[in-house]
Amino acid sequence: MVVKLLKEVILEHLKKVIDPETGADVLRMRLVEELNVDANGRVSYIFHPSSPFCPIAVFLVKEIKGVVAKVPGVTSQKITVTDYVAAEELTILINKEITK
Q1: In whole angstroms, what is the distance from residue 84 CA to residue 9 CA?
Q2: Rounded-to-integer distance, Cα 51 and Cα 14, Å
Q3: What is the pTM of this model?
Q4: Statement: residue 1 has pLDDT above 90
Q5: For 49-87, what is each residue's pLDDT tens digit?
């Protein structure tokens, strides 16, 4: 029950992350996929930029990570970037970065 509630709160917060190019939120654009939350507050998800060369992919994934980090009960995040020209590098970078 707690996991389901935490996931719902995270999804509500993600609706606040707007892609400046389209004006749509990242959930509506399906840029965040396979969101999973465990009982210890560990969150994992896939970030899928709108194109392999998305010029704002780094900006968006940082925004997403920051919003998720601020949700009470979230203890950690594991983000996987897919379908992006530098997906592997960005996955490593964003998972090393500490969010305040």
Answers
A1: 27
A2: 19
A3: 0.92
A4: no
A5: 999 999 999 999 999 999 999 999 999 999 999 999 999
Which of 43, 16, 66 is closest to 58 using CA atoms? 66
CB 47 within 8 A of CB 79: yes
Please tell me what DSSP assigns to residue 84. S
Residue 34 tokens, joined: 């396979």
Residues in the chain: 100
Give the SS3 label for residue 18.
strand
Cα dihedral: 67, 72, 73, 78 (round 10): 10
φ, ψ for residue 11, nearest 5 deg: -60, -40
The pair phi, psi for residue 96, each rounded to 5°, is -85, -30
